[in-house]
Structures are given as C-alpha cells and as structure tokens.
Amino acid sequence: MSTNKWTTNNIPNMKGKTVIITGANSGIGYEAARALAAKDATVIMACRSMEKGQKAVQQIQAETPKADLKLMALNLADLASVRAFAESFLAEHKQLDILVNNAGVMATPYNTTADGFEMQIGTNHFGHFALTGLLLDLLRTTPNSRVVTVSSYAHFMGRINFADINSEKSYQKWSAYGQSKLANVLFAYELHRRSSQNGGNPLSAVAHPGYAATNLQHTTRFFSMLNPIMAQSQEMGALPTLYAATSPEIQDGDYLGPDGFLGQRGFPHKAHSSRASHDEKAAQQLWEISEELTGVKYEF
C-alpha cells in the first residue's frame, strides 16, 4: 500500500471549474458532488430521478450552504434524454472542465433501454459514449479538461460479445455487467488514444471504487449481506474518482483504484486494469459499433 494517502483534503480549490457528474444523487456520484461542491466547483448533478436529485441537492446545501449546484434531468437509458441534456447544457455553459461518467446499473434482470439496447451496456456504456461525444467540442475547447469514466473491478470478468452485444440471443446478468464495465475501460483508453493524437484535450482517465457500500448493490441480496462486513464506505469508494478528476499527478490514460488487497479497499493510487482492457483492436471495434448504434460520431 502507498505511504502517501490521498484524501479529499488534497483536492485544490475548484472555483471557476464546471463539473458534470452523472448519477449524482447517490453513491459514488453523490460523494463526488459533495466533495467538489465543498471545494467551490460549479457542479451539474445529472440525475434520472429529479425527486432523488433534489433531495441530494438539499443534503449537500445543508452541509455546504455556498454550494453551487444545478440539478438537470438525464436518463442514460434513453438517447433522446441524453441529447436533450447535452443541448440544454451547451446552451447555458461555455466551458466544461470535468465530465464524470459515473451513473450505472448492476446485475439487473433482462430489460432494454428506450433505444433497444440491453439495459446494462445501454446505460453504463452507450449512454455515456453518446453523452461524451455530444459534449466533446466543449471539452476540447476548455483548457485542461478531463473525462473520468467510472468502471468496476468486475471488468476483469468481462468480455465483449460482438456477435451479441445486446444479449438478444442469451442473457446472464453478471456476464452482461462485466461486459459493460469492460466497455467503460476500453472506451476510456480509446478516448485517450484518439484525443492524444489530436492535441491531447480532454485527458481521459478511468477509476474504480473497489468494494464500496452503495445503492448499486441493493439489487442483489448477496451484496446486501456482505456490505456491512466487507465493504468500505461510499466516501472512500469515491476517492479514486475524485483523484482522477482533480489531482495534478494524473496522466492521460491512467487507471485509478484503491491501494488495498485486490484493489477492493483503501486509498486511491495508479492501478492496473485487465489484459482485455488493453486490446486496441477490440477498443476500436467497440468505438465503431458505439458510433453506429448511438448515431453519435466523434469529430476531433
């Protein structure tokens, strides 16, 4: 484990910085919004449930009355909602310093998004792919901007089934989750490669929270039972995301996670993702499929 323990105390003042966090009403997203608001950032809380989002805003403002927060509706399982969010944001903002692609679903029963994608890869990957692409021009014109994609240690068990990427032929919830989380890492690395070939802005990094007790695990009884015994807090789970978003130590293409045993808990450090996540051919193929299915083409 590292001797230098990075915490929210290390976050510099963020006044003048604009940040979008998807899924900011709970879990890792909420803790990231809370920490960045306390450091004077302008935080756009992009949430599917406006009711839950409003409660989160009130909780943060009760703790940090000066918090500069804006709640905006975003349903990543509906590309029309993604486009509406991007259009609304771009109409009101002239900079985007940090985009945190955090929202996600885990191990859900088989379901499809509004656009017919399998729910997990549709929400966790395709929705964020489209969002980032629609905001790319602003990210590229904002100096030193960053895109932080939140993945999971579960990406180690993932493989991209290009022959059945939306699980229409067969569905296994954990395989689909692993696929979606591997897609997150492949996307972050491919964004890094394409961005670095075109001026290097935005920086693209990927973070995973380790085993953190968040609402995401409420979908399974197994994790609900394990959480009190083994999981670290969601505050600790948010540290790799915040480290990736704010630390001057971060380099393009970094993968950040907890420094403890098997990367499941601890303080954030630079870690190693799976061998499959470094498959550049698979990353390019996923990128092309993502552009085709979402209708969002990246222009560098």
What is shown here, in short?
The chain has 300 residues and is an alpha/beta fold. The chain is built from 10 helices and 8 strands. It has helices at residues 27-38, 50-63, 79-92, 119-134, 136-141, 173-196, 221-230, 234-237, 239-246, 280-294; strands at residues 18-22, 42-47, 68-73, 98-101, 146-150, 203-207, 255-258, 268-270.
For the termini, the CA-CA separation is: 39 Å
Globular, elongated, flat, extended or rod-shaped: what is the shape? Answer: globular
CATH topology: Rossmann fold
Average predicted confidence as pLDDT: 93
- Please tell me the total number of domains: 1
- H and E order: EHEHEHEHHEHEHHHEEH
What oligomeric state best describes the polypeptide chains here?
Answer: single chain
Strand order, largest beta sheet? 3-2-1-4-5-6-7-8
User: What is the percentage of strand-forming residues?
Assistant: 5-15%
CATH class: Alpha Beta
Major beta-sheet overview: 8 strands, mixed
Structural class: alpha/beta
Helical amount among residues, as a percent range? 40-55%
Name a few traits of the molecule:
10 helices; Rossmann fold; eight-stranded mixed sheet; alpha/beta; 300 residues; 13% strand
